[in-house]
Amino acid sequence: MRKFCSDLEIERKIDSLLRKMTVEEKAGQLNQVGPSPVGGFEISLEEKQKMLAEGKITEEEFDRFLSEEKWDEQEDDIRTGRVGSFLGVRDARRCNHLQKIAVEQSRLGIPLLFGMDVIHGHRTMFPIPLAESCSWDETLFERTAQAAAVEAAADGIHWTFAPMLDIARDARWGRIAEGAGEDPYLASRYAAAKVRGFQGDDLTDPARILACAKHFIAYGAAIGGRDYNSADISLQTLWEVYMPPFIAACESGVATYMAAFNDLNGIPCSVNSYLLQDVLRDKLGFEGLVVSDAGSIWECIAHGVAADRKDAGKQALIAGIAIDMVSRCYLDFVPDMVLSGEIPEERLDEAVRQVLRLKYAKGLFDQPYTDETLEEKVTLCPEHRALARDAARKSMVLLKNNGILPMKKDCKIAVVGELSDIGSEMLGTWTLYGKGEETVTFIDALKTQNISFVYAPCCGVETPLDRQALQAVIIDADVVIAMVGELRDMSGEASSLSYIGLAGDQDEMLRLIKESNKPLVTVLVNGRPMAVGNAVSYSDAVLEAWHGGTETGNAIVDILFGDYNPSARLTTTFPNASGECPIYYNHVSTGRPTSDVRHSCKYIDSPLKPLYPFGYGLSYTTYTYNNLEVKALEDTLEVIVEVMNDGNMAGEETVQLYVQDVLASRARPVRELKGFKKICLQPGELQKVSLSVPVNSLGFYNDSMEYIVEPGEFKIYVGHDSEAELCQSVVL
Ligand code: BGC
After folding, report:
1. Mutate which of 157, 161, 430 for ligand 1 pocket (most atoms within 8 A of beta carbon)
2. What distance in Å separates the CA atoms of residue 551 and residue 385, rounded to the nearest whole number?
3. What span, in angstroms and rounded, lies between the C-alpha atoms of 447 and 670?
């Protein structure tokens, strides 16, 4: 796939359109409107009142909210060319109706773009991105994005605000759920696959949608894991840790980027010309457009870098944001500022050109409408459901198993935990159109698969433990399966937590089951890594099922009863305690490496190792690694290892390769993932696996911000997870 780029013929058409446009019409193209001023959320009355009191919305807007008149119905504004795109409006009929106004009733007939957060599925919900990344399966990343694109496109959507490519090292940050975890290399491969899946090879294909690499950048570095907080990081960390997935997205042809809410080292990303010009345009050669985050332009006033909305709009446009998502700073102020010469018209034209380029690239001038008969055919179709089930089981990580799993279907099973039967809670953050009633819960799945069981909720995330009900339901059981975790709105945007253990009485429920000497299988349903050490110690087996989407229940049953051999591996470190965050495997070597010596880098009240490391995950079989060979060729390292399945079940293993630069002019990470391969092994089968690592990927940025690969010794570790011990040194 090639980079998103301009095309001479299209540029000519844009030139001629630009000549006809008034400054108001130009500003209109940059104006994105949506159902609420803070993005596609439902906002409670209390929140609306608070926004009014804080001056975030006007009396008029407040009244419009109350009368439930939506911003997305600004038909007069479309007619007069004051709207260029929509956020969060779906439904082919509705979109076509609005599109017709733009195409047939506005002076220049420029079509609208409909954008929406299609993050992990549209109506068929796939596992949340963090979960899906644990499959380490690029084909799957691509297929679920494509299926989501098909459903969204049939629903009138042209553009998704995904993939989210923020590296997240702090489990307190709720938005860790939306990305591919903590590793830049894996996240880069994820980025490329997602862009391919959403966009395909031909942007004009009506069954594909434009992708958006977000949030540019370092949003995941929010201090303390507190959403919307500042990111204060070195340029080396920016380029080595946070940039790689955004570079991969650009190289895969991503059409758009979204600027992040946060400031980077003091300059909000929405007005940051270093990021938007020097990095994106000059270094990456990106020719698509950048959209602001919802309201992030006006938030520059709260950041204290813009005097008012006019100033914020001016700074954002000059820095390089083409589309103003919902803050109307462009629409209200840019025309006057251009007429008065405060903003050069060329700057406005450049932004409008980027918007028109996107609309041409998507083919909207030729085919602005959505086929209204499609939605019914593709939405929640059997293929998408089957894919959702496969994606969910490939994403679920088996964390502990003392041999109790897989279970027999004919033992006496008691199921407890309210989450076992609440469909909507399986769907996870950013479920805008997926529905709880269409979701297979664990209880539904047990019933349809004719597995007998008794069930009592006994305890929920917010529902106190009913001890009597618990004793009654488990008394005759051979095995207890407990489903515990987080509600879906406990992760995602604006859902940072200071405590990431199990909430409420859930731990106590597990403790009582353990005390009753019943074998216990715990299933975790959640959106972030959690400090679940107690739950693990009470349980005979623990399955991390995440917010697994529409087919969560079936996938859990497939795994617990051995119809599927678990293969997922963590893409995020699990801490022992909330206070260990941020925690990540690829940290830089310190002068006092972690050890049981007192004066070493550690917490004195926590184990030396995390609860579960990056890359970790069990299977119903075991794999052994032998005979590691590393050859240094001119530009690559060729790595060969023998992997054997020495259990008695076929399974998929993710062979992981880590590198450590042993001696360098800057302290380097203790190890970094530089390659992986997923293989399938029959019982007793041995495979020789080869991986190649470009030597050029082994470098770092020096003090002058030059990327260099320093000669010397490198250690190559290959194995099952980031603690792999099989190692070979190579001198470059
Ligand atoms: C989020 C973005 C999202 C946008 C539009 C914002 O609040 O940060 O990720 O794309 O809303 O819904």
Report:
1. 161
2. 7
3. 48
Cα dihedral sign, 324-327-328-334 = negative
Residue 292 Cα to ligand 1 middle (Å): 9
pTM of the prediction? 0.96
Token pair listed for 600: 């070493």
Q: What letter represents residue 6's amino acid?
A: S
Average pLDDT over residues 494-498: 97
Shortest-distance Cα residue to atom 8 of ligand 1: 293
Q: Is 39 in the pocket of ligand 1 (CB under 6 A)?
A: yes
CATH architecture of 623-731: Sandwich (2.60)
Mean pLDDT in residue range 680-687:
98
* Closest by CA position to 428, among listed 212, 676, 175, 94: 175
Structure tokens at 124: 């068929």
pLDDT category of residue 62 using cuts at 50, 70 and 90: confident
Binning the chain into helix, strand and coil, the percentages to the nearest 5 are 35, 20, 45
* Helices 382-395 + 138-154 axis angle, to 10: 140
Give the CATH number of domain 382-580.
3.40.50.1700
Residue 456 CA to residue 465 CA, distance in Å, equals 11
The ranges assigned to domains in the chain are 31-116, 382-580, 623-731
- Looking at the CA of residue 38, tell me the nearest atom of ligand 1: 7
Equal CATH topology for 382-580 and 623-731:
no
* Length of the chain measured in residues: 732
Alpha carbon of 39 to ligand 1 centroid (Å): 5
Check residue 119 and give its pLDDT: 98
Contacts of 382 (CB under 8 A, 6+ apart): none
Residue 40 CB–ligand 1 contact under 6 Å: yes
Q: 214: Cβ below 6 Å to ligand 1?
A: yes
Q: Which residues are catalytic?
A: 293
pLDDT band at residue 67 under the 50/70/90 scheme: low
> Buried (b) or exposed (e) across 345-371, using 16+ Cβ within 10 A?
eebbbebbbbbbbbbbbbbbbeebebe
Residue position matching structure tokens 């604006």: 494
How far is the centre of ligand 1, averaged over its atoms, from the C-alpha of 612 (Å)? 31
For the cut 70, the answer to whether the pLDDT of residue 138 exceeds it is: yes
Pick the atom of ligand 1 nearest to 164's CA.
9
Contact criterion met (CB below 8 Å) for 693 and 729: no
What is the H or E stretch that residue 731 is in?
strand 727-731
- Mean pLDDT on 366-386: 98
Pair 417, 509: CB distance under 8 Å:
yes
Query: Greatest CA separation found in the chain?
Result: 81
CA of 177 to the centre of ligand 1 (A): 14
| Residue percentage of the chain with pLDDT more than 90 | 93
Give the number of other Cβ atoms within 10 Å of residue 721's Cβ: 17
Nearest residue (by CA) to ligand 1, atom 10, is: 161
Are 347 and 316 in contact, with CB atoms under 8 Å apart? no
Ligand 1 centre to CA of 111 (Å) is 23
The verdict on the CB of residue 669 being under 6 Å from ligand 1 is no
Which residue minimizes the CA distance to atom 5 of ligand 1? 39
